[in-house]
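Saturday, quiet lab. Running sequence design on the structure tokens for the scaffold JK sent over.
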């Protein structure tokens, strides 16, 4: 079937004046509305002055002490202090003296007083390095670090100004179990390697506590009693004072491997020469050392 064709065209009647006026006003109104919308959109898309917004966030950080519970801290910005950054990385903050001497204070300003003054390059000309265990901000906005100080009595603490030191992060720590004659190396809380060690005998025991590596050096006589390498700790013998370094406890090699695994030393930790050389690759000045019975 064919579709029907168009019918006869009906002439259009011209619109009345009132109808044209209403239509014109409507068109003008629509135009104004569209213009207003365009201005609003452009205003919202135009770049305004820069604004900085602190975004509240949280981070879970570990204590410097092994096996301590995790702590959740609230942060008001995405910028971490060096101490917080070290913890967030699962490591430890170490500070090195940049002033000579380096002043150790009893507390944070304004009521602080210098309790000790240590040379920047001290015993055996080793750079003064400390393990930082806490931080604080004084009334003037200056940062301070609480550190273990390598002096008697063991685990002596003090404060240093952040302006007097440089910082770096270490991720390894050493944990020594005296009764098991075992030294464990950890990296960010994960066990890496284990070594058999000789430890202090009954009358000259290895002192328990938290220390750090304060001296690291090749021995002048690799065939001697200290083997090929020695690391002096921030701790001291509780029985001996008339000893090298004032009775400073160390981790060192030995040319008598039969003594490894026994109570044999004056308080030092003995490793086989090959073991301490391997350990030395990951243990640096400032590395934390935890000694337990």
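Result came back. Writing it out in full:
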């Amino acid at each position: 079937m064919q579709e029907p064709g168009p019918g006869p065209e009906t002439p259009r009647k011209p619109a009345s004046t009132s109808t044209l006026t209403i239509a014109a006003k409507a068109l003008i109104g629509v135009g104004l509305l569209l213009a207003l919308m365009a201005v609003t959109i452009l205003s919202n898309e135009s770049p305004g002055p820069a604004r900085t917004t602190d975004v509240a966030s949280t981070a879970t950080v570990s204590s410097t002490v092994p096996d301590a519970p995790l702590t959740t801290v609230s942060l008001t910005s995405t910028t971490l202090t060096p101490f917080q950054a070290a913890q967030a990385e699962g490591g430890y903050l170490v500070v090195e003296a940049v002033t000579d001497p380096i002043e150790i204070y009893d507390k944070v300003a304004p009521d602080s007083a210098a309790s000790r003054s240590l040379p920047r390059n001290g015993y055996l000309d080793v750079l003064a390095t400390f393990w930082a265990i806490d931080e604080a901000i004084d009334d003037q906005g200056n940062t301070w670090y609480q550190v273990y100080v390598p002096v008697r009595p063991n685990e002596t603490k003090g404060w240093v100004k952040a302006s007097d030191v440089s910082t770096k992060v270490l991720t390894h720590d050493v944990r020594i179990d005296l009764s098991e004659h075992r030294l464990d190396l950890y990296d960010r809380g994960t066990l890496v390697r284990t070594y058999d060690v000789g430890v202090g005998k009954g009358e000259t025991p290895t002192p328990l506590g938290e220390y750090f590596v304060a001296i690291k050096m090749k021995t002048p006589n690799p065939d001697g009693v200290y083997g090929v390498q020695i690391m002096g700790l921030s701790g001291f013998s509780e029985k001996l004072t008339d000893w090298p370094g004032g009775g400073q406890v160390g981790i060192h090699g030995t040319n008598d491997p039969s003594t490894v695994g026994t109570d044999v030393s004056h308080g030092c930790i003995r490793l086989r020469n090959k073991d301490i050389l391997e350990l030395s690759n990951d243990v640096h000045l400032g590395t934390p050392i935890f000694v337990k019975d």
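Notes for JK: The radius of gyration is 36 Å. The chain has two domains: 57-170, 172-292. Ask whether to fix the surface positions before the next round.
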